[in-house]
């Protein structure tokens, strides 16, 4: 533990808390030791002054030192590096201080600010490190930081007063946390908090992190909210109620704000500050995305009007109707925009309880005076048309224009309708709340996304036009038959018309998503062909033409320092090994052989292939003895036999030729922290997992059979190492071999620590040959943190969660990867009768504590132990676990990796280039992206359903992600391999959200908040990691159920409402249909199916009275709805086929298509679609979203029929029985040539019924 220094304003020549800018400028920080000492001194003074925890301070000292050194690698001047770090870290706070703090302080006197970057950085991280769950409220952090700055800026005038250790946590953080946790949880002595609402969602009025955070966006709301029981300092101070005073009135000046935070009654101050109601219904979805529904409504009604008029002229249908009421139908189109604006304005005000009265009045005035103008003109138009013939001439004509009044009103109505429609389709104001602080979104170029949607709408218009044509024709025939029969039943006419319109509307609204998929397939393939290398991609995917690879790797990846080049003659230039210098050839040979050794270590190649593909020595390479793979006439047969080994070599050849590829060196790259959350995932297989009674179990037998060639290579490797069968070493090796082929934490950590570290070491070895200790340099730049939430329970021999097997697996990880690995965990302990919670960190240097009664079982003593304000797991677990581990990350860049992923050596060579994406020239955050996304390789294509799930994930991670990035500009964050700028995400509340239920899909909110705060994401394809997916029937469908529930909850959030209101229309369409709109589309498909069935039954029964009605059913089915289900099947398969054709060739695409059809992939897609629609719609109406632990192991057990029926009865079986019952009534109807329509029902996941 670092000893406390005496309280002295100046020590060792380092500046005090309130020292001037000149004092900061005069310090000398050229030496790393002086920089470290300066950080430690400043943090110690702040800790004594403000009452932070000592261990939290020591943790942040190490953190700040690492960040400063990271920036020092790009800026030679230490002061400039710290100033840039400070500018990026406090970018949000400085804006907030100017807009909110200055107004909040009035009429108090602010303290003159002191420019002290080092102190500000230290103060920010010290406060941030102790907030616990309060870190999800970034503007609350700004408030506390700014108040502390006011105190520190005045410390030169005020005597220093020491605060007791932990007083900040006890007196400020815990009271605020207590208010937040009691909002939705019941606190019980000795037990974790219990959610008040059980399985139901929290009430719409319950506040969450976003509501409390947005209280600090408006200075006037904040002034009224903060209350204290302490008496005022002036006689003019006002009481907010019979017992409370405004907090600001109790302060003499801005310095008093920090001092008197302990007097604030946070329970009274933070209650009833709801800014957005998460109301479970379709209303938030309709309000936030009203422009999309308005666009569909206008398009549908316009097409119907066009076809009604056109059919009347061409076929003589509905002539009487169009002659008498055609103008009225066309004029009523102008009422669509006012109707949606009325719904939007009322709904927005209903869902926004914090909206000020003046803003509500402004919205209503805009609605009445502007948005409803077409209604007024329409009423005037109808009134004018209804005037009798003998009305006065002055009403029928405008005297000075000699033009009929009706014509003038018609022109005015058309103008108002078009004008309001354009206004309605445009984005709303960025700050509808009129708050002083409201982050503004960045505005990307809309031309590419606009052109993309023109293509999509052009494709969609053919189908949409034909659908509305048949709908209009059916309606006109119904009306004509009704007139000809003369039935005095107007309600029957309304029912029949509705039965025609409803299925058509549902199909019309749902098919745009299908055509979006077609456009993504076309545009994504074109963009992918350009990004992946163009024409050269055709060669590299076959392993041909790799003679360019050595020179490309040296020139684009290794970035060697200047060195003598080799002089060659004309003949020598035809051979690549003669064109390369000695240093370049040596570097490439070393990198290539390292790759082959990595493949051999994973048992992907055998010893013979290793010898065949390797360079024997650099000297022989100089003489032209190179592997056949790099000779001019090399063929595909020269690649290894193992498919994974071939893929990895081809992937390296493809990635190295992509443009743009940032030029980067290891010594200059930002520091990286990889964060891996872990709860109950398998760490490493043990003997008990693979053997039963001394005999291999089903899992091991399956792995040996499925990975037959790799197991043969494994045995060959063991025999070469003289490892006899039956020994302990064989069992350990077999456990590791099995762990590296399943979705285990061991595989993830082995990939990250092994591949990343080895790649960076070999790069730095050749990029900086003068640098000694490349391993130490890599350790400074790479950190792996496993957020193992349950470690304390694993290590407690008295608790039910005690697991010697897990502890041994953890120790094995420290033994193998201890140079880079740290483990963060949550510990609970009873202190003075009160249960306290701590966020702890251990690494390989921590002391081992033997567990009594168990041999070779150890726990570790924590290196850092930071107390939390209370029980931290208030959400669904993962986001809170990440939040607790975040304080132990050292890197400037974060990578979020799940415990079912892998990394590869050849891909890790691109890691410096990936990190270079964040190295912008700006001192603020405007010049660098917040998130950089990358593709994934799905390695879990095991079994039929595992392959289907892998194909779906492969398509999403490549084709769809690529198109979302460009041209749609609609990509957010999806976890997995994404790199995140930590300096940006800490200013928006962290890497995820943690409100129970509402933030079930926690990862995507990092991208949502980043976009809403003016940041952006990019997507690159030169770097990738491995990813495992679910492989069993129940686990795959459970995953889609969880994702559907998460998207339903997203639709209710303020983030989605603000995106829907503020984005440009072209960007909004891309974001909507690639996220919540996709799941809504599944609901529309399901509803369209049932509506079509009911319409078919109704018309079939009506045909008993009038045969023409049954003809209508036949025509609608044969001409329209059959193609609808064909579109569904194509949309589920086309992107995967196009991406496979792009990366592997046409034959591979045809083989994948054929195998998918044979495996009934469309049937499974339809079943999956029905499941998603059920859970999305149910959660949207009733809430109750819950995390579903799917488990990612092999499906080696059969599910009982009764269990399966109970699981899928509400979502599938009941609707299927209804459909069968409906179709039973339509059996006598002759559907003519429509032979494939019964099959389309089967594809929809119900039953295969002959009609």
Automatic annotation (TrEMBL):
Class of this enzyme: transferase
InterPro entries named in the record: FKS1-like_dom1, Glyco_trans_48_dom
Annotated membrane topology: Multi-pass membrane protein
Membrane-traversing stretches: 292-309, 329-351, 363-383, 403-425, 446-465, 485-506, 513-532, 1123-1142, 1148-1167
Pfam family, one: Glucan_synthase
EC number assigned by the record: 2.4.1.34
Keywords assigned: Glycosyltransferase, Membrane, Transferase, Transmembrane, Transmembrane helix
Main location (coarse class): membrane
Presence of the UniProt keyword Kinase in the record: no
Residue stretches making up the 1,3-beta-glucan synthase component FKS1-like domain: 115-227
Signal peptide extent: none
Domain of life assignment: Eukaryota
Keyword match Transmembrane: yes
Entry similarity comment: Belongs to the glycosyltransferase 48 family.
Name under which the protein is recorded: 1,3-beta-glucan synthase
Organism in which the protein naturally occurs: Durusdinium trenchii
């Amino acid at each position: 533990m670092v000893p406390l220094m005496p309280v002295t304003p100046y020590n060792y020549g380092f500046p005090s808390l309130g020292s001037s800018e000149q004092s900061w400028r005069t310090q000398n920080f050229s030496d790393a030791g002086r920089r470290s000492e300066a950080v430690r001194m400043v943090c110690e003074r702040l800790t004594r002054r403000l009452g932070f925890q000592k261990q939290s301070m020591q943790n942040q000292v190490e953190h700040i030192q690492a960040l400063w050194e990271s920036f020092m690698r790009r800026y030679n001047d230490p002061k400039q590096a710290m100033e840039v770090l400070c500018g990026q870290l406090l970018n949000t706070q400085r804006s907030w201080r100017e807009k909110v703090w200055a107004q909040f302080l009035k009429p108090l006197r602010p303290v003159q600010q002191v420019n002290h970057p080092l102190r500000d950085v230290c103060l920010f991280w010290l406060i941030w490190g102790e907030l616990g769950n309060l870190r999800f409220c970034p503007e609350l952090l700004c408030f506390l930081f700014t108040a502390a700055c006011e105190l520190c800026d005045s410390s030169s005038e005020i005597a220093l007063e020491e605060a007791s250790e932990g007083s900040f946590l006890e007196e400020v953080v815990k009271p605020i946390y207590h208010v937040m946790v009691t909002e939705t949880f019941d606190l019980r002595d000795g037990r974790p908090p219990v959610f008040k609402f059980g399985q139901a969602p929290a009430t719409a009025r319950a506040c969450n992190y976003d509501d409390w955070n947005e209280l600090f966006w408006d200075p006037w709301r904040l002034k009224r909210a903060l209350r204290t029981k302490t008496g005022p300092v002036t006689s003019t101070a006002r009481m907010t109620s019979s017992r409370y005073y405004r907090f600001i009135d109790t302060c003499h000046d801005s310095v008093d704000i920090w001092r008197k935070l302990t007097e604030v009654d946070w329970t009274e101050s933070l209650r009833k500050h709801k800014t957005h109601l998460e109301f479970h219904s379709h209303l938030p979805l309709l309000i936030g995305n009203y422009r999309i529904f308005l666009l569909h409504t206008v398009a549908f009604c316009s097409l119907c009007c066009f076809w009604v008029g056109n059919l009347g002229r061409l076929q003589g249908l509905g002539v009487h109707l169009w002659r008498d009421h055609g103008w009225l139908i066309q004029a009523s189109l102008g009422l669509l925009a006012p109707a949606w604006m009325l719904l939007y304005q009322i709904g927005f005000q209903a869902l926004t309880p914090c909206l000020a009265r003046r803003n509500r009045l402004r919205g209503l005035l805009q609605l009445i005076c502007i948005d409803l103008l077409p209604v007024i003109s329409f009423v005037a138009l109808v009134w004018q048309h209804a005037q009798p013939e003998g009305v006065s001439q002055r009403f029928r004509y405008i005297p000075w224009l000699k033009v009929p009044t009706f014509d003038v009103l018609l022109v005015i109505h058309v103008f108002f309708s078009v004008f309001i429609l354009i206004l309605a389709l445009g984005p709303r104001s960025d700050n509808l709340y009129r708050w002083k602080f409201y982050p503004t979104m960045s505005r990307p170029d809309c031309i590419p996304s606009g052109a993309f949607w023109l293509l999509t709408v052009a494709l969609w218009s053919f189908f949409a036009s034909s659908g509305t044509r048949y709908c209009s024709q059916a309606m006109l025939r119904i009306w004509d038959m009704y007139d000809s029969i003369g039935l005095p039943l107007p309600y029957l006419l309304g029912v029949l018309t509705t039965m025609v319109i409803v299925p058509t509307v549902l199909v019309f609204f749902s098919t745009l998503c299908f055509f979006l998929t077609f456009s993504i397939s076309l545009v994504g393939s074109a963009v992918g062909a350009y990004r992946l290398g163009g024409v050269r991609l055709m060669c590299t995917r076959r392993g041909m033409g790799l003679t360019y690879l050595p020179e490309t790797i040296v020139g684009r990846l290794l970035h060697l320092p200047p060195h003598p080049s080799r002089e060659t003659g004309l003949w020598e230039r035809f051979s690549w090994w003669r064109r390369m210098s000695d240093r370049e050839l040596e570097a490439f040979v070393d990198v290539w052989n390292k790759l082959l050794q990595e493949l051999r270590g994973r048992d992907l190649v055998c010893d013979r292939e290793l010898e065949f593909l390797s360079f024997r020595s650099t000297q022989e390479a100089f003489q032209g003895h190179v592997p056949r793979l790099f000779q001019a006439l090399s063929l595909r047969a020269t690649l290894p036999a193992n498919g994974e080994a071939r893929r990895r070599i081809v992937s390296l050849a493809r990635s190295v030729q992509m443009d743009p590829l940032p030029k980067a060196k290891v010594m200059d790259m930002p520091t990286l922290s990889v964060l891996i959350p872990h709860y109950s995932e398998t760490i490493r297989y043990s003997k008990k997992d693979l053997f039963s009674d001394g005999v291999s179990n089903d899992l091991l037998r399956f792995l040996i059979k499925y990975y037959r060639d790799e197991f043969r290579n494994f045995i060959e490797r063991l025999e070469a190492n003289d490892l006899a069968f039956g020994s302990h070493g064989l069992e350990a090796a077999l456990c590791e071999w099995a762990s590296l082929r399943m979705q285990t934490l061991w595989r993830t950590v082995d990939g990250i620590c092994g591949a990343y570290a080895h790649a960076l070491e070999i790069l730095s070895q050749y990029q900086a040959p003068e640098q000694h200790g490349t391993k130490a340099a890599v350790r400074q730049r790479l950190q792996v943190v496993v957020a193992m939430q349950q470690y304390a329970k694993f290590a407690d021999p008295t608790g039910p969660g005690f697991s010697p097997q897990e502890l041994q697996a953890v120790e094995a990880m420290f033994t193998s990867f201890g140079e880079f690995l740290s483990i963060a965990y949550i510990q609970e302990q009873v202190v003075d009768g009160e249960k306290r919670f701590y966020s702890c960190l251990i690494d390989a240097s921590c002391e081992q504590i033997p567990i009594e009664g168990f041999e070779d079982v150890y726990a570790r003593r924590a290196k850092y132990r930071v107390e939390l304000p209370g029980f931290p797991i208030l959400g669904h677990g993962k986001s809170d676990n990440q939040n607790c581990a975040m304080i132990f990350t050292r890197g400037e860049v974060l990578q979020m990796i799940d415990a079912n992923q892998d990394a590869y050596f050849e891909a890790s060579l691109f890691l410096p280039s990936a990190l270079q994406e964040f190295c912008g020239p700006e001192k603020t955050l405007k010049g660098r992206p917040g998130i950089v996304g990358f593709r994934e390789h799905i390695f879990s294509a095991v079994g039929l359903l595992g392959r289907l799930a892998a194909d779906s994930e492969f398509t999403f991670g490549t084709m769809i992600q690529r198109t979302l990035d460009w041209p749609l500009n609609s990509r957010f964050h999806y976890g997995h391999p994404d790199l995140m700028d930590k300096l940006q995400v800490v200013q928006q509340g962290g890497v995820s959200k943690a409100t129970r239920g509402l933030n079930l899909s926690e990862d995507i909110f990092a991208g949502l908040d980043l976009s809403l705060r003016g940041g952006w994401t990019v997507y690159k394809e030169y770097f990738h990691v491995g990813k495992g997916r679910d492989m069993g029937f129940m686990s795959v469908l459970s995953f889609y159920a969880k994702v559907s529930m998460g998207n339903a909850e997203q639709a209710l959030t303020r983030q989605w409402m603000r995106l829907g209101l503020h984005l440009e229309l072209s960007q909004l369409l891309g974001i909507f249909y690639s996220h919540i709109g996709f799941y809504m589309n599944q609901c529309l498909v399901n509803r369209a199916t049932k509506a079509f069935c009911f319409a078919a039954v109704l018309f079939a029964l009506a045909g008993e009275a009038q045969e023409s009605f049954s003809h209508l059913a036949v025509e609608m089915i044969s001409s329209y709805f059959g193609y609808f289900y064909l579109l569904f099947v194509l949309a589920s398969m086309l992107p995967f086929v196009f991406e496979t054709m792009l990366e592997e060739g046409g034959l591979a695409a045809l083989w994948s298509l054929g195998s998918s059809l044979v495996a009934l992939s469309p049937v499974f897609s339809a079943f999956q679609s029905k499941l998603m629609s059920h859970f999305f719609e149910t959660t949207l109406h009733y809430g109750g979203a819950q995390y579903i632990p799917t488990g990612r192991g092999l499906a080696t057990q059969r599910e009982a029929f009764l269990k399966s029926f109970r699981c899928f009865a509400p979502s599938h079986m009941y609707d299927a029985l209804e459909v069968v019952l409906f179709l039973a009534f339509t059996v006598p109807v002759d559907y003519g040539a429509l032979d494939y329509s019964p099959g389309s029902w089967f594809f929809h996941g119900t039953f295969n019924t002959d009609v």
